[in-house]
Design a protein that fits this description.
Elements lengths: L6 E4 L3 H10 L5 E4 L8 H4 L4 E2 L8 H11 L6 H20 L6 E2 L2 E2 L1 E2 L9 E2 L6 H15 L3 E4 L4 E7 L2 E8 L5 E6 L2 E4 L20 H9 L3 E2 L4 E8 L11 H5 L3 E3 L7 H4 L8 H14 L5 E4 L5 H7 L1 H9 L9 E10 L2 E3 L11 E3 L4 E2 L11 H20 L12 E2 L9 H14 L6 H16 L4 H19 L17 H4 L2 E4 L6 E3 L6
Parallel strand pairs: 1-2, 1-12, 2-8, 12-19, 18-20
Antiparallel strand pairs: 3-7, 4-5, 6-7, 9-10, 10-11, 11-21, 13-18, 13-22, 14-17, 15-16, 16-17, 22-23
Helix pairs in contact: 1-5, 1-12, 3-4, 4-12, 6-15, 10-11, 13-14, 13-15, 14-15
The protein binds flavin-adenine dinucleotide and succinic acid (SIN).
The site of flavin-adenine dinucleotide has 45 residues, from helix 1, helix 2, helix 5, helix 6 and helix 12.
């Protein structure tokens, strides 16, 4: 394969593909992705993409909803960039061929929790991510400067004289380790839901990019903020399949085992309260009634409407013996999104020169302590493009070196040790989960520190290290806010904690006032 290039993008979700299309304006771009091109969190996105484009919407309302969901920790500059530039990038995506659902020829907008307007565009009902990936891959394949390389796992970032100058990856065709140099590197490796036993994220979401960036010296921020999606199918033998928030946006009701609609008892916004509140309400109601799950009720909605509006969810439920129009759907929360990540400014620059980050791997401060539903596909487009543009503008005139000779690579050095992975996932779920307490967090940190000292390969150590960083950040923040809830500190404490956690290699955790001043 051809590896001599100008720019490297790691990951082929919405952020990586959009960054690649921007970089291609200024040189050859190699996109390395560890699985199939279309295997990513983006591919599974259901509900849609939030954008202030409808006639009754306003930029300021979308900004306000995002800031409220973010619980006092959003970086307002980043939020304004997201919301103000969003319409332009969505319009561009439509020009590139993305087909969002329409009603009478006009774009159709749905509602999701904590949005004050119907502002969510969707595609094929509930397969929005797949349509976005399809359109972006088609655009990238057409571009002569972009080389898309599937099944090429990046295993490390090469840093020389304090600058990221390239990456090491496993060649897809042979058991070889290659090192390729570039004028700039964009990290778009997505999230880390796989750190937890219960997650909506596919198996590729193991946080590789976060761990590699940390190991290379980049600063991580806000890792304590983990979003749990409230309504994930809870059926023995079935995967943790997402039951989109858009179902509640269209009128689905949460019921307990007695059939009582309970959500309004926990928050006056009921089913449409922010995700963290709905997730905790489900857990509290389950505990109060001594049950493992609650139910999502759509039986009052028209069967034809449900089948047409949510075809993928309808079919998937049927496969597990549930007819959405007739049956209550068992649900409980699962880990869905990590708000924290590699610290960047609003142009995707990390604290490590030469390295840019965009999408779920990055922390721009745009989501604060809790992401507003459907803001992350938009984030991938807007900040993917901005990271690409900045990387292009700041880049070295040429790569630091020519590619070195590939070397034999033992694939077992890269495979995630399954025993350790399962231990970490259970530990994170039970001790660093939706409801946290100091004793359990301390025990998680101790166990993860010990695990990292065991004889494990580099990748497994990365996985364990990222889990430890999350547990340490969760222990550090002695308050509750957004996606971080401490039973021992249940109140939000703006006086002491309206700050961000910052973690860097070989340094104690510290607080910083703003993300985007990187
Ligand atoms: P991803 O789309 O996850 O892409 C990451 C890429 O990096 C993948 O191609 C992966 O294979 C690759 N990669 C990872 N590690 C390596 C490595 N070591 N080497 C090479 N490549 C690597 N958000 C919304 O806004 N609206 C929604 O409706 C919505 N629904 C969702 C539904 C589900 C089930 C899930 C899981 C998430 C949903 N989200 C939604 C969140 C959203 O999909 C993601 O946050 C967003 O798509 C992330 O995009 P990304 O490009 O940053 O990462
Ligand atoms: C959903 O469809 O509920 C997911 C939306 C999101 O995560 O933004």
């Amino acid at each position: 394969m051809q590896t001599s290039t100008d720019f490297i993008v790691i990951g082929s979700g919405v952020a990586g593909l959009r960054a690649a299309l921007e970089l291609a304006n200024g040189g050859r771009v190699t996109v390395l992705t560890k699985d199939r091109l279309d295997e990513s969190n983006t591919e599974y996105a259901q509900g849609g993409v939030a954008v202030a484009l409808s006639d009754d919407d306003e930029i300021d309302l979308h900004v306000e909803d995002t800031l409220i969901a973010g619980a006092g920790l959003c970086d307002e500059t980043a939020v304004r960039v997201l919301v103000e530039e969003g319409p332009r990038y969505i319009t561009e995506l439509i020009e590139w061929g993305a087909q969002f659902d329409r009603e009478g020829g006009e774009l159709a907008f749905t509602r999701e929790a904590a949005h004050s307007r119907r502002r969510i565009l969707h595609a094929h009902g509930d397969s929005t991510g797949r349509e976005i990936v399809r359109a972006l891959i088609a655009a990238a394949k057409k571009h002569p400067n972009i080389q898309l390389t599937a099944h090429a796992a990046t295993i490390g970032l090469t840093v020389e004289n304090g600058r990221c100058v390239g990456v090491q990856f496993i060649d897809p065709s042979e058991s070889l380790r290659r090192e390729v140099f570039a004028r700039a590197v964009v990290l778009a490796t997505g999230g880390a839901g796989q750190l937890f036993a219960q997650t909506t994220n596919p198996s590729v979401a193991t946080g590789d990019g976060m761990a590699m960036a940390y190991a290379a010296g980049a600063m991580m921020c806000d890792l304590e903020f983990v979003q749990f999606h409230p309504t994930v199918l809870a059926l023995a033998g079935a995967p943790r399949f997402l039951l989109s928030e858009a179902l509640r946006g269209e009128g689905a009701i949460l019921r307990n085992h007695d059939g009582e609609a309970f959500a309004k008892r926990y928050d006056e916004r009921g089913e449409l309260a922010p995700r963290d509140i709905v997730a905790r309400a489900i857990v509290a109601e389950a505990q109060r009634t001594n049950q493992n799950c609650m139910f999502l009720d759509l039986t009052h909605l028209d069967a034809g409407f449900l089948r047409e509006r949510f075809p993928k969810i309808f079919e998937t439920c049927l496969r597990y013996g549930l007819d959405m129009a007739k049956d209550l759907l068992p649900v409980s929360p699962a880990v869905h999104y990590v708000m924290g990540g590699v610290r960047t400014d609003t142009h995707g620059r990390t604290t490590l020169p030469g390295l840019y980050a965009a999408g779920e791997v990055a922390c721009t401060g745009v989501h604060g302590a809790n992401r507003l539903a459907s803001n992350s596909l938009l984030e991938g487009l807007v900040f993917g493009a901005r990271a690409g543009a900045a990387a292009l503008g700041d880049a070295l005139p040429s790569p630091a070196k020519a590619e070195s000779e590939p070397i034999e690579f033992d694939l077992s050095d890269w495979r995630l040790d399954q025993r350790t992975k399962a231990r970490v996932q259970e530990l994170m779920w039970w001790k660093v989960g939706l409801l946290r307490r100091a004793e359990e967090l301390q025990s998680a940190v101790a166990e993860l520190t010990q695990l990292a000292e065991e004889k494990i390969n580099r990748r497994t150590r990365n996985f364990v290290t990222l889990a430890r960083l999350m547990a340490e950040a969760a222990l550090w923040r002695e308050e509750s806010r957004g996606g971080h809830y401490r039973e021992d500190f249940p109140a939000r404490d703006d006086k002491h904690w309206q700050v961000h956690s910052a973690q860097s290699l070989n340094q104690p955790i510290q607080s910083i006032a703003r993300i985007s001043e990187a």
